[in-house]
Design goal:
three-stranded parallel beta sheet, TrpB-like_PALP
Length: 292
């Protein structure tokens, strides 16, 4: 066997709800992306973006890399950049949890904290690319982001539900996960419903965004999402805690948001097979308010 850590990205488990779903006619499943080696769904996109850039010669071992991130993509990029011996600077909102910053540094990345949130971080990275010959993967406009999920996440869900999935629920950040998975699942079965999750007005939920038009990810195609539900920060926190206590699933706030919506669906449907993404692990939120 010649397995490497890269070979452990993807093929994450899918588990059935044993407590939260009480509708006997609906099966609710959680796809545990925290089981990726870097601890989140973003391992898939980060690997595909780096591999694609290296294969196309868009970058070399000497290229200075920079990327704006709210957290999970940065951790994944730091891990995979380290494996390929690449130097990378990650720009994050200064509100990022200490665990995320420390994890990125442990993998060897330089971390820059920006006072103006993810939008400010994106602008900072863009200026570095424009003025200082840096290269950015620009996850928000990079087809290798969503194609990672078209090639892996979607097929895994189809395989593991034996093609019986009727609804797919995902929180929306860069939108790579929902775009790629939607594209694959709808090619297999047009009737599959794709459900996006965004924060309510005024709610700030790590990993989920309702982007201003100026910052809307270029990879986002609204025709690939059937319905978008909104959740509050309070709902997302409460559900993250329930996931841990009742399902044994330790996850972040964006997973709580997605599960809130998945349960709404499960309660409303007469029958169906709902799959919801659990996008990361809860241990990177221990210094936040999430589990206080």
């Amino acid at each position: 066997m010649n397995y490497t850590i890269i070979d452990q990205i993807g093929n994450t488990p899918i588990v059935k709800s044993i407590a939260l779903n009480t509708n006997p006619n609906v099966e609710l499943y959680f796809k545990l992306e925290g089981n990726n080696p870097g601890g989140s769904v973003k391992d898939r996109a980060a690997y595909n973006m780096i591999k694609t850039a290296l294969d196309s010669k868009a970058i070399t071992k000497n290229t200075r890399l920079i990327e704006a991130t709210s957290g999970n993509t940065g951790i994944a990029l730091a891990m995979i950049a380290g494996i390929f011996n690449l130097d990378i600077e990650l720009v994050m909102p200064e509100t990022a949890t200490r665990e995320r910053v420390q994890t990125m540094k442990a993998y060897g990345a330089k971390v820059t904290l920006h006072p103006e949130g993810i939008e400010g971080a994106r602008d900072y990275a863009a200026k570095k690319v424009e003025n200082e010959e840096y290269f950015s993967f620009n996850q928000f406009a990079n087809d290798a982001n969503w194609k990672a999920h078209y090639n892996t996440t979607g097929p895994e869900i189809w395989r593991d539900t034996k093609g019986e999935v009727t609804h797919f629920v995902s929180s929306m950040g860069t939108t790579g996960t929902i775009m790629g998975t939607s594209t694959y699942l709808k090619e297999k079965k047009k009737t599959v419903q794709i459900i996006g999750v965004q924060p309510k007005e005024g709610s700030k939920i790590p990993g989920i965004r309702k982007w201003p038009d100026k910052y809307l990810p270029k990879i986002f195609n609204s025709s690939k999402v059937d319905v978008i539900y909104e959740v509050s920060k309070e709902e997302a926190i409460a559900m993250s805690r329930k996931l841990a206590k009742e399902e044994g699933i330790f996850a972040g706030m964006s997973s709580g948001g997605a599960t809130t919506v998945a349960l709404r669906l499960a309660n409303e449907l007469k029958e169906g097979v709902v799959v919801s993404i659990i996008c990361d692990r809860g241990d990177r939120y221990l210094s936040s308010e999430l589990f206080e």
